[in-house]
């Protein structure tokens, strides 16, 4: 059955064909039937005279894609379709519109983002970063297309960042995460802008995960709209045994040790100490003790301590009934659950990045006498441990997988 028989004909024209309506197999069939993009004609319309030394690089990138398209490479043909959609938004089957008019072309500094602005009169303003090589410019364009186009309108080409490429291969080959769970709009290969900023309502400090790349995880749109998680929720990090991380992604929610996930496997328990509460074990009895200043504290229960008694306000606290997250990627990466694995002859480490509801989160300090110096200079030690008893993405939502080589 051809695409024309399986989907409405109206879907086969223009940007709507890529707006999440076609499956990957249908998209490939559509691309094979669509005409080639007329790159020479597109280059005539682009105001390259305003691009300075970057103009020949843009010219080189588009002609290279054009050459491969003419040689029958379907991925580069699709990449040109994506570039047209990025520029025009309203186009038909890969044809360069007759009415395509550019108002100008602007440059931003290296490391900046490529973007498109459309005026009321229909004129298009293209902004691209300066670059030293065609490869750098191609990477910037691919990142911009990934951010602005539908997640279903993805690219099969190699990702521009070698570390991000390795992260995707690790997710595919080691974690066995299906591509449908990933959202390339959330991919990050570098952390631009302010390293630290307040996030959430009420706000808590978020510090960028320098040295890591992030693979975006698809987030349920109903959760996003209902809870406004990108605006109101705090950013945190969570450690999972790496061989169980795929199980967590399939389950669409965090799991505690002993839980059975969507694939039928039981989450591994960590033998011995808890790792995040000193030398305590799962059998250690804890209480939460109110503090006059700063967050309440977790303390090992002793009958002799009157502050540990219920009549004085102490509450029984069972760590195993809570999810542990942290605002610090440094602290989370040091937990035993985050121990690296060997992959392709190197040590690879992954963490989960999450958004969590502030009113479901309790910050508890723990006085670890073995840890007198700050674990992370961006935070005090008493801020590092967040506990959430609630299950499910309406309390803690997985938004990304962080990856790095730790050797």
Write the layout of secondary structure elements.
Blueprint: H1 3-6, H2 24-33, H3 39-45, H4 55-70, H5 74-88, E1 102-108, E2 115-118, E3 124-129, H6 134-148, H7 162-173, E4 196-199, E5 204-207, E6 213-216, H8 221-227, H9 229-232, E7 234-238, H10 245-251, E8 286-289, E9 297-300, E10 315-317, E11 323-325, H11 329-333, E12 341-343, E13 346-356, E14 362-363, E15 365-366, E16 386-388, E17 396-405
Parallel strand pairs: 1-3, 9-15
Antiparallel strand pairs: 2-3, 4-5, 6-17, 7-13, 8-9, 8-10, 11-16, 12-13, 13-17, 14-16
Helix pairs in contact: 4-5, 4-6
Explain this structure to me?
With 407 residues, the protein is α+β, with helices and mostly antiparallel strands. The protein has two domains: 3-147, no CATH class; 165-405, no CATH class. The chain has helices at residues 3-6, 24-33, 39-45, 55-70, 74-88, 134-148, 162-173, 221-227, 229-232, 245-251, 329-333, and strands at residues 102-108, 115-118, 124-129, 196-199, 204-207, 213-216, 234-238, 286-289, 297-300, 315-317, 323-325, 341-343, 346-356, 362-363, 365-366, 386-388, 396-405. The strands form five sheets. Strands 6, 7, 12, 13 and 17 form a five-stranded antiparallel beta sheet that branches. It has a four-stranded mixed beta sheet with strand order 10-8-9-15, with no helix packed on it. A hairpin with a 2-residue loop joins strand 12 and strand 13 (346-356). It is elongated, with a radius of gyration of 25 Å. Mean pLDDT is 82; it is low at 1-8 and 10-15.
